[in-house]
Amino acid sequence: MAQQPVQGLEEQLDNDAIDDKLTHSLGYVSGKMTSHARFLNLEHGGGLVRLNLKKPTVVTDTPAGSTELLRIGSGKSHVGYHLAARLALHQYFTANGRPVLRFLMLDQPTQPYYPSDMAKARGRLEDLALDDDRVTVTRLFQLMHQVVAELSPGFQIIVSDHADLPHGWYQRSVRYNWRGGEKLIPATWLGTNPAP
Questions:
Q1: 131 close to 116: Cβ distance less than 8 angstroms
Q2: Which residues, including other chains, have CB under 8 Å from residue 158's CB and lie 6 or more apart?
Q3: CA 135, CA 87: separation in Å to the nearest integer?
Q4: CA angle 141, 147, 150 (to 5 degrees)
């Protein structure tokens, strides 16, 4: 009778089994990260994208060798790779019933793309229609939307951002729009005697 629990515990401690499980898990996550990086058209995203657990960091394989996230381009690339990694991890956790909170909170993932808004201030609206940054921002939100739809109802992404895309799928996803006097913390919550 006691032999079954002992055998189960021995299997959990088996280094080969642990290595196989880790290899499988990292392969699954890498496949998702690679797919996300390609969807987002990230710099060096054409190769295999994976996690390096020894560092820990995101790595992409290029014909010239492996490139770590710190050596990959700009803040735009960093946001894209971080999003790809986090979404892939949540896809893995959800698919395998892991005890991880089923939401992701992101604060202003479009921040590196705001310099293109200067064109709007100068009145060059024709530039905005073809703006690569606008296309990339749309793809960021499309990817988030697709992953949430795939994992629904077991996963949620909460994004606080200034972006306001005109697409129907995006507008249906907006829950609060803190503009025109509406704020995250309503003025009625603020006491008449704020703390010093």
A1: yes
A2: 103, 104, 105, 106
A3: 20
A4: 140
Between β-strands 57-62 and 65-68, what pairing exists: parallel, antiparallel or unpaired?
A: antiparallel
Closest of 14, 69, 12 to residue 37, by C-alpha: 69
CA distance 173 to 187: 25
Which letter does DSSP use for residue 128 in this model?
H
Inter-axis angle of helices 75-95 and 15-39, to 10 degrees? 130
The Cα–Cα gap between 54 and 163 comes to: 36
Q: How far apart, in Å, do the first and last CA atoms of the chain sit?
A: 66
Give yes or no for residue 171 having a pLDDT over 80: yes
In degrees, rounded to 5, the angle at the alpha carbon of residue 26 between the alpha carbons of residues 108 and 28 is 80
Beta-strand (E) ranges in the chain? 49-52, 57-62, 65-68, 103-107, 156-160
pLDDT for residue 112: 86
**pTM score, two decimals?**
0.79
Neighbours of 19 (CB within 10 A): 10
pLDDT in tens, 114-166: 654 455 555 544 444 447 888 889 999 999 999 999 999 989 999 998 888 99
